Amino acid sequence: LFPAYDEPELKATFVIGIDRPADYQPSLANTDIERREVLANGYIREIFYPTPRMSTYLVAFLISEFEAAASSLNGTNEFGIYTRPDAKNQSDYAFDFGRKVVDALSSYFGINYYSTNSHLRLDHVALVDFSAGAMENWGLIKYRESLLLYVPGQSTPYFKYRVAQIMAHETTHTWFGSLVTCHWWSNTWLNEGFANYFQDYITSFVDPSVGAGNQLVIGSVYSAYDADNSPTSPPITNNAVNSPSEISGHFGTITYQKAGSVIRMMHHLIQDEAFRYGLNYYLTLNSFNSGYPDKLYEGLHQGVQRYNTLSSYPNNNISDIMNSWISQAGHPVVNVTIDYSTEIVTLTQKRYYVNSSISSNETYKIPITYTTQRAPDFENTRPAFILEDQTLTFMIFNISREHSWVIFNLQETGLYRVNYDDHSWSIIISALKGNDSAIIHPLNRAKIINDLFALVYADEVPFSTLSSALDYLPLEPEYTGWFAALRGFSKIWHFYLGDNEVLPHVEHFILQHLESGISRLGYEERSTDSLEDQRNRMQILEFACKLEHTGCVERTVELFRALRQNGTEVAPSLRPVVYCTGLRHGSAEDYDFLWNRMVNTNLANEVWVIGDALGCTSDESRIRSYLVSMTVENSPIRTQDLTVPLASVLRAYGNLHIVMDSLKSNYTLWSSIYPSMDTVLNTVASALHTEADFNEFETFLSECTVCTEATKTSGRNALVQARAATAWANSHKADILKVIRSNSIMAAPSVIVMIIGLAILIFKEL
Hints:
Layout: E1 11-12, E2 17-21, E3 28-29, E4 33-38, E5 43-48, E6 54-55, E7 61-62, E8 67-74, E9 77-83, H1 92-109, E10 121-127, E11 134-135, E12 140-144, H2 157-172, E13 180-182, H3 189-201, H4 203-206, H5 212-227, H6 244-250, H7 254-270, H8 272-285, E14 289-291, H9 293-307, H10 318-326, E15 332-339, E16 344-351, E17 366-368, E18 370-372, E19 385-387, E20 391-395, E21 406-408, E22 417-420, H11 422-432, H12 442-457, H13 463-470, H14 479-495, H15 503-521, H16 531-546, H17 550-566, H18 575-584, H19 588-600, H20 604-614, H21 620-629, H22 643-650, H23 656-673, H24 677-685, H25 691-703, H26 709-765
Parallel strand pairs: 9-10, 10-12, 13-14, 15-22
Antiparallel strand pairs: 1-6, 2-5, 3-7, 4-5, 8-9, 11-12, 15-16, 16-20, 17-19, 18-21
Family: Belongs to the peptidase M1 family.
Subcellular location: Cell membrane
Domain ERAP1-like C-terminal: 405-722
């Protein structure tokens, strides 16, 4: 369209002119239309007002038949949602949330969105197929339909949260990305870290019903941990980013979720007034220019100075604290040892590695928060001190008499795991399983479980400690605690796929723990459900049905048959598990029914839900057909969703041979349609579990004459990870089996007690 240096620090103003067919809708661009001219050839020329001074990657325009599903004009403040004509009725939530979130962000940052340019628009466009997911072009933000359009009563609750989250993320980029842009992609966290943080932080105020506040932890923090646990994990600021492939590779979990988690940690450290003041200072001083880490730190320093919020932490400043997290790879685990006889607490930090044979000597400036059983306060997340050295000793008074618990990292506001000495773990786990477990904050209950799984994998604690802690689940009413447990269950279950000796015991162990959640939430939506209740029921039932829980399978198959035979619609929050289980226990005709439903629906997120379920079919011919369907012309599988069929099919270990056959036969075709074959090979490698699997995959890579060397290297790296997972599983299965068998023996008397208790209750009622 025009020659340009596509580098973020190079900025200009742009005047856009478009000639469009007269029967199309008016064009859209970053700014309002200044004038129109009717041309002699049946076209209309539209000239737009000059844009703000901005980077070239933010320029955007739209020539289409899309209509304004909703728009508002408040003086000169233009806001709209644009969709294809037959999706106009799906934009109400986006319109309502989008207006509220731009107002909330304008207020928080102290810079009104529309004040940056008198002709700036704010339009959100739902595109039929968009590989990027969403893109923050200034004034004209683009989305996949499934990430902008949500219909109550038809869309799953997950998509309500996702629409809010993504709209908040992209709107935040107006300030962090558009108004102030990272000078180079090595510091893309200055754009993406803030967008990642505020996507949930601001959403928690604009629409509390979607549970975004908890997602800050179980979404971003947990993802950051997983991406940051190996010696090859890069730092957030990565100066080795120069080539297009390196730039693309830098847009990942480290620069999004980890950076967002560090920003959240700093927010809690310096407190809200100083944080807001510092961000306003940074944004105001650098408007229409480039951002650098040092400029951000200077802004936060100004906030700290104004509100005196670091005075309790002598010899510490924002720059040093931030650099210990931004410029240094990894994250720490803090080991807590408590001598209850002397009330002396010793903290020791070290970098966390999932591979226990690796060690290094990094230290981080860690904001330490804690509370005690004697005076529990999980709401005060202002750190007591900063752990700067490898080891620190201090006293906590009045804990010796009753050996009361001490819990660190309140609400997981710090980016660090916590490991306690054996006695302290015993005290905490007893409290977790006791009558007062609700005193412990839901995010800390989740943290205990999530950390224990990670510490088991790193050989820091025995599986028996984790197993004991998991016995608290019957007391857990919250989505967050179950989320932590289920992601841990999923990983350990995945480790033992292909191991017929261990897998049945692991599945029985997991199902025992799921039973209480199923009993609490049931199989149907309730009028009293919150959105998080619905998501909790969904995650528990999905796993239970996958492991063939009898009640779950019977009820979901019943709901699927009622849908197919009688047209009785399934509640949106139950559709993923009903569709998948219905196909797994169904026929080829059931697959065809759901395929046709996908082809004919007008709702993009329903297309995604069905597409994700089609791989559950037990009919091998339909599985092969599904893998072929993504390669044909005019496929209902959109380009943006090409990995969905592959991931869906691979969720059943028994389908691995089908995928390997297709990969070998169709590699050239797949490489022509998939944006990245690295992603494909990584997905396949993650499904490998046995030596035979590994050998087949290695042979394929060695004999593949059309694979690039870079793709082969990526595939072999993924194979190394798969082998490591299986090696860990094999080396630990004796201990795990011992604990699981012991747990099963102990569970039987509990069931008898429950039955006797129920009989007594019934007798009393009579």
